[in-house]
Design a protein that fits this description.
Elements lengths: L4 H15 L4 E2 L1 H8 L3 H13 L3 E4 L5 E4 L8 H8 L22 H17 L3 H4 L3 H7 L5
Antiparallel strand pairs: 1-3, 2-3
């Protein structure tokens, strides 16, 4: 299974927000920290806001902040929100297959996907945003 770049960027943005001492950052700050496109991050921030993971703060000192505590955000929830299609093979997404009525592969792939998501559901943003000091150093965030 491979996650999209948008999901990768979403998780990176959330980690950045989780380790910031004041808990907020601009898209430009996140883009610079990871050396990625601001345009892509704007799309990511919009979707994360729409799905209730980040809040947009307007005015002086504005930017993005976590919409709820990092311990309440699971990696699995973020992946589900960001991934347009978690079908591992076309038949899982409603496609047709010549052996569909007798196929046992689709059920096993569904179990594998469920196990994958269960592991991610067991990880919170607070957990993956550790060690905070090391991440702050790597992301050039002042403590």
């Amino acid at each position: 299974m491979r996650l999209t770049v948008m999901t990768d960027y979403a998780l990176r943005m959330l980690i950045h927000l989780a380790v910031k001492p004041e808990g907020r950052a601009t898209i430009a700050e996140v883009a610079q920290a990871y050396a990625i496109s601001e345009a892509h991050l704007m799309k990511v921030a919009h979707q994360l806001g729409r799905d209730g993971f980040v809040a947009t703060l307007r005015g002086r000192g504005g930017g993005l902040a976590l919409a709820r505590p990092a311990g309440e955000i699971t990696v699995g929830a973020v992946v589900r929100a960001m991934e347009p299609d978690l079908a591992l093979v076309p038949c899982m997404g409603g496609g047709t297959c010549a052996i569909g009525p007798s196929c046992r592969l689709e059920a096993r792939l569904a179990q594998a996907r469920a196990a994958f998501l269960a592991v991610l559901d067991g990880a919170t943003l607070a957990e993956i945003a550790e060690p905070r000091d090391a991440l702050r150093t790597l992301l050039h965030i002042a403590a």
